[in-house]
C-alpha cells in the first residue's frame, strides 16, 4: 500500500506540472513560431472536425533529446478577444477555475509582464509551489501569453517541479468564436521507481482540463445573475 500511495503521489505531481504549466532572466525565443494573431495553427482535417463539435483536441509534440514531454490542447472559446485575455491573465482568480491551483500571489504585474507564485494542492495531501513569469503579446485579432518557470530561492527540488514552459495562443476562428491553443512542456524531474514515463503518460490527460477551466470561467462571467434585467 505504501508503494501504491507513493506512485499516486508521483503521478499527481507530474500531472500538475503539465496542467499548470499554468510561466531567470529575460524570456527567450518563443517555443513555437507564431504571431499573436494566429488563430488557426495547422489543424488537421480530423482535428478541425472535432473542434467544430465543441470538443477539446489533445496532441503530443515530439521533441527528441528533451527530458520532458510537450503537449498541446485546442478548443473553441465563445468569447471576445478581450474577454478571453482577461480570464487567462486573471492570475489572482486562478484558484477558482484552474485545476490544482490552491493559491496565487502576484509579485509583479504590468500590462505585458507578470511574475506569479502558484501554490498547488495535489492528491494525497501533496503541496507544490512554482514561480512563473508571464509575457503578453496582443495583436489586432488575438493574443499570445508565454510563460516560463523562474527560480524560487529557498525551495528544495521536492517542493517544486524541474521545468515547465509554454504559451497560450488565441485568435479568431474562421467558423466562429476563438480558437485557443494551450502548449506546454514539462519535466517533473527525478521520479524514483523508474516510473517517469508512466507518470508523464498519465499526466497528459490533465491538459484538456485547463482549456475547459477557461471555458467554464467565461461561461460563468457571461451567465445572467439573479436580479439582472
Write the layout of secondary structure elements.
Layout: H1 2-20, H2 45-52, E1 57-61, E2 69-77, H3 81-88, H4 94-97, E3 101-109, E4 113-122, E5 126-138, E6 142-150, E7 163-172, E8 178-187, H5 196-203, H6 207-222
Antiparallel strand pairs: 1-2, 2-8, 3-4, 4-5, 5-6, 6-7, 7-8
Helix pairs in contact: 1-5, 1-6
Beta-strand content estimate:
25-35%
Tell me which oligomeric state these chains represent: single chain
- The number of distinct helices, counting runs of at least 4 residues, comes to 6
**Helix share of residues?**
25-40%
Description:
With 229 residues, this protein is of the alpha+beta class. The protein has a single domain (2-222), classed as START domain (Alpha-D-Glucose-1,6-Bisphosphate, Chain A, domain 4, 2-Layer Sandwich). It contains six helices and eight strands, in the order ααββααββββββαα. The protein has helices spanning 2-20, 45-52, 81-88, 94-97, 196-203, 207-222, and strands at residues 57-61, 69-77, 101-109, 113-122, 126-138, 142-150, 163-172, 178-187. The protein has an eight-stranded antiparallel sheet with strand order 1-2-8-7-6-5-4-3, sandwiched between helices. Helix 1 crosses helix 5 (196-203) and helix 1 crosses helix 6.
